Amino acid sequence: MSDAHGVARDQLRAFIERIERLEEEKKTIADDIKDVYGEAKSMGYDTKIMKKVIALRKKDDQERMEEDLILDTYLSALGMIPGAGAEEEEAAA
């Protein structure tokens, strides 16, 4: 085997081993997060809402505003916002 093949093999092995270590760290962190959610739940917090709050905090204000407007539009179109769309219903009657 040439020296170039040996170097490439060693590099590949190093990349694979680094990825494996990072995957293990990722699993450990995921387990830690799960434990924190469990602790919060045992204290009476709603973990579904906590996850939504965390997702919202990852977004900037503009992105959140755009999503809120689209959500309101969809909910209104489906008649899921009380009082919204009353003008259309009266006009149809």
Automatic annotation (TrEMBL):
Pfam family, one: GapR_DNA-bd
Coiled coil: 5-39
Domain of life: Bacteria
Keywords annotated in UniProt: Coiled coil
N-terminal signal peptide: none
Residues in GapR-like DNA-binding domain copies: 8-79
GO molecular function: DNA binding
InterPro entries named among the record's database cross-references: GapR-like (IPR018753), GapR-like_DNA-bd (IPR046367)
Annotated family: Belongs to the UPF0335 family.
Name this polypeptide is given: UPF0335 protein GAO09_29350
